[in-house]
Structure of Tryptophan aminotransferase-related protein 4-like:
Amino acid sequence: GKPICECNSCYTGLDCSQLVPDCVVDADSGNPIFLEPFWRQNAATSAIMMAGWHRMGYEFEDGSLISKELEKKIRKLHATVGNAVTEGRYIVFGAGSTQLLNAAVHALAADASSSPAKVVASAPYYPVYKSQTDLFESAKFKFEGHTSSWMNSSSMNFIEFVTSPNNPDGQLKKAFLQGLNAKQIYDLAYYWPHYTAIPSPMDKDLMIFTLSKLTGHAGSRFGWAIIKNKAVYERMVNYMDLNTYGVSRETQLRTLKLLSVVLEGNGKQMFSFGYEAMRFRWEKLSKILSASKRFSIQQLTPQQCTFSNEVRAPTPAFAWIKCEKEEDKDCHATLSAAKIIGRAGHVFGVDSTYVRLSLVNGKDDFELLQHRLEMLVFQERLVNLMAEFTPGG
Ligand code: PMP
């Protein structure tokens, strides 16, 4: 018969419990489905319903494109979590943070001198910084590669993306380029208690956040920027006006509802759920790979978290795998042969001995990934044992 639920592509049967033999594990996409069980538990309180006549117009009552109630809620959320300073700052909404990344580049490049602003990021970096800046390249800005290649240059006029924690490797990052010649865009998509300890509130000129990684509602396409400088804020507003004329009112309504649920009990519920899920996954993965000399993962250290008031174990959104052996120098191909699809290192501006594996997907995907990695490490031990017992080996 027809399955009663939508099965993950690796499972079949009426209750999706039968494993499809030889199925390929998708650890490529950063789809944050690990939070779905939390929203199932809170299905009723997080639901919205909209009558046909509601919010048909372009603007809110005050003539703006931004729900003031939602803006207030976002400020309250940051104050509760303690991850960003919003007092005295402006806020702009975007269709996901994706739209805001270019709005920010546009706004910061407007001051540029005669030559285009150089947009840079430090490798390994989130690939959209390059592909998007290339797409929109103009007389005002141009993607100019890795931050590190400009460290000792006397060039002027940089726009540096700083991603903290970083996608793909989960490290808390700082700006490399200092001084008047460089402006930073802080992409704080993962600066939430489920992915990192929060050492202190970020207090930067331009910070970007996204609902996608906060609550997992990537499909709603909602992000926001927190901006110190009024002129930069106005240029970003102008960008949004001309690009899409603001963010869908349905999305703003849904976001408001979701954030209200997040804020119940001062955010403890969702963030504990998220943290526990991610901690479990990182522990499993670290344990499996600790037995391997063929594959390693990034080193992350426990840190004091001001939100939870305790020292927290690492809980990155991605495993950043390195293939250590010469014969595995195309690490993506090695893992693909073992039916694990990750994202190759070159996509993030580094060599092909690295692969990113997503840890934020659904439980089925994670369990299968775990199983496939166990098999790989088991094989490695078998090969080593056989070599030991081979005469002359
Ligand atoms: N920045 C980083 C570092 C990301 O990982 C992502 C999503 N993978 C985004 C921005 C974009 O997310 P969205 O457009 O869904 O907000």
